[in-house]
Amino acid sequence: MDKTFISREVERLVNGVAVSDGAGVRLLRVLTQDLQRRLDPFLMLDEFRSDNQDDYIAGFPDHPHRGFETVTYMLDGRMRHRDSTGQEGLLGPGGVQWMTAGRGVVHSELPEQEDGLMHGFQLWVNLPAKRKMIDAWYRDIPASDIPQSVTEQGSTLRRIAGEGGAIRREDTDPLYLDLHLKAGGTEEVTIPAGYNAFIYVYAGEVSVGERAQTVTQRQMAVLANLPSANGVRISASGEARLLVIAGQPLNEPIAQWGPFVMNSREELEQAFDDYRSGRF
Ligand code: MN
Description:
The protein is mainly β. The protein has a single domain (10-274), classed as Jelly Rolls (Sandwich). The protein has one helix at 265-276, and strands spanning 10-15, 17-21, 25-31, 42-50, 60-65, 68-76, 79-83, 88-91, 96-100, 105-111, 118-126, 137-141, 148-150, 156-161, 175-181, 186-190, 196-203, 206-208, 213-215, 219-223, 231-235, 240-247, 255-257, 260-262. The chain has a 7-stranded antiparallel β-sheet, with no helix packed on it.
């Protein structure tokens, strides 16, 4: 390991909240609304994981979004997306769908399977005020287009977003990694000092930083913004899998009403009005 590497420490451990969303999809809401300021620009992280079709089969029929981006990362199962701009795509294992709602999109996200495991994540990334009303944009990134490498320690690193990743976004510059640690492995992930960052462990458990704080499966660890830290050091005694997510904060007011995230109440009312009048 790099002796000059200074790791961030865990500031807070968060256990997700079980919720039901869409037409009755059971989810673990990991990043909840009360963490939006602390983890700016991230607004939400959900994990969906079930092999019981009753938990996911109804999916997310037509619903609107405005003012931010949704990032869906599929590990197991298939989900079909259709939207009001005429886009359609099938999201399969290991693939990512990056959708910028901008000024407005109506879409459906429906499982394309009747049984078996459905497992993945949806992350919401905010847009700066100046870009909330841009045209909707959408990209399907198949698993084969996501850069994947094996480190010296034998860990597998999939770079979904950020430097060297499948996608880069301006303003928030999100870093989105899926890291698979081998038993006994340690990795140092570079994160710019001013960025808000967290990890989410979805298999096994890890220890983080000099204090070796344990983070167990289905826990999120908010990483302290230590100005002198280069990133985060993560170790695992057994095999472990986790997401590492970081981004540049926007430091703007956040106003959310369900699927709309704007900067003020007036803009939310406008969004609701535009949607009801079919202007999406
Ligand atoms: Mn949606």
